[in-house]
Amino acid sequence: MHPGYAQQQQQQQQHAFPPTIDAVPAEARLTETFAFIPGSLAIGGILGLIGLAVNLASQQTPLTVEDLYLPAGCLAVALLFGAWEIGRRLRRTAVVFHGGKIGIYRSGRLTDVAYPGQISIYQMHIANTIRELMVFGVLTLGTLAGGAPTVTSNAGPGLILLGAGIGSAGAFVSSIYARLACRHFLVPRSQGSEQVMFTRGQCERFRI
Predict the structure, then answer these.
(1) How far apart, in whole angstroms, are the C-alpha atoms of residue 133 and residue 135?
(2) SS (H, E, C) 131-154
(3) Distance between CA atoms of 199 and 208, rounded to whole angstroms?
(4) Gyration radius of the chain over CA positions
(5) pLDDT value of residue 174
(6) Which of 17, 43, 120, 124 has CA atoms 20 to 30 A from the CA of 174?
(7) How many angstroms separate the CA atoms of 202 and 196, rounded?
(8) Per-residue pLDDT at 55
(9) Is 63 helix (H, G, I), strand (E, B) or coil?
(10) Pick from 192, 51, 204, 1: which is nearest to 111 by CA?
(11) pTM of the entire structure?
C-alpha cells in the first residue's frame, strides 16, 4: 500500500464535512453538554474570599502572612475552576451525522471522521452515583444550614459557610443532572477516545 494512501482516504472522508462547525446548522449537530461543578466551586470560592475579607477587615490585630493563606486559597479556587468552566464550554465537542459517517468537531473545527459503530455508550456505575450523592448531600445540608442563619449576625463566617454550601450544592445537583438528564458516550479521537455527555433529548432526536 502506498504510504500516503491512508492519509488520502482520511482527507476524502473529511471532505464530506465542512472544516468548521459554523457551517453546520444548529439542528444538525449533537453538541456536548456539561454539568456545572467547576462553576459552583468557583462561586463558592468567591463567597469564601468575601467572607474571609470581612473577617480580616474586622480583625483588631495586625495582619500576618498566615492570615492570607486561606484568602489566597479561595482566590486560587475561584480562578482555577472559573477558567476551567469557561474554557471547556468554549471547546465543546460536537458530532455531525452524514452519509453513514460522523464528523467530530472540537473547538469548532473538524478533527476526526468516524463510523457510528466507533461511538460506544459509557455506563455510569450506580455505586459511585450513590456515594457521590450521599457525600455532596450531607455537605450541602450541613454548610447551608450553618451558613444561612449566620450571615445576618456574623457575615464573615456565614459567607464562608455559604460558599462551601454552594460549591457542594452545585456538585450535588450536577451529579443528578449528569446521571438522570444525560447519556455518556466514548467518542474516538486521534489518540484514543474521550468521554462526552449529551442530553437525553438530543440523543432521542438523533436516535442514539
Answers:
(1) 6
(2) HHHHHHHHHHHHHHHHHHHHHHHC
(3) 11
(4) 23
(5) 87
(6) 120
(7) 13
(8) 79
(9) coil
(10) 192
(11) 0.74
Cα separation of the two ends of the chain: 35
In one-letter notation, the amino acid at residue 146 is G
Residue 100 carries which side chain, given as an amino acid letter? G
Q: How far apart are CA 159 and CA 167, in angstroms?
A: 12
One-letter amino acid for residue 81 of the chain: F
pLDDT at 108: 92
Q: Which three cell numbers stand for residue 60?
A: 483588631
**165 or 182, which is more confident?**
182
Calpha distance 82→41 (Å, rounded)? 8
Q: Please give the average per-residue pLDDT across 6-23, as a whole number.
A: 68
Q: What's the confidence (pLDDT) of residue 153?
A: 55
Quickly tell me which residue has 453546520 as its cell: 24
Residue 184 φ/ψ, nearest 5 degrees = -110, 140
Residue 7 Ramachandran class (φ > 0 left, ψ -120 to 50 alpha, else beta) = alpha
Residue 6's pLDDT is what? 46
Residue 103 has, within 13 A of its CA and on its CB side, a CA count of 23
Compute CA distances 198 → 35, 53, 148, 185, 206, whole Å. Answer: 10, 40, 35, 8, 11
Residue 110, classed as helix, strand or coil, is: strand
Q: Where are the beta strands (DSSP E) in the chain?
A: 29-31, 93-98, 101-106, 109-114, 120-121, 182-189, 192-199
Distance from C-alpha of 110 to C-alpha of 105, rounded to nearest angstrom? 4
Residue 152, pLDDT score:
56
Q: Tell me what the mean pLDDT of segment 128-135 comes to.
A: 78
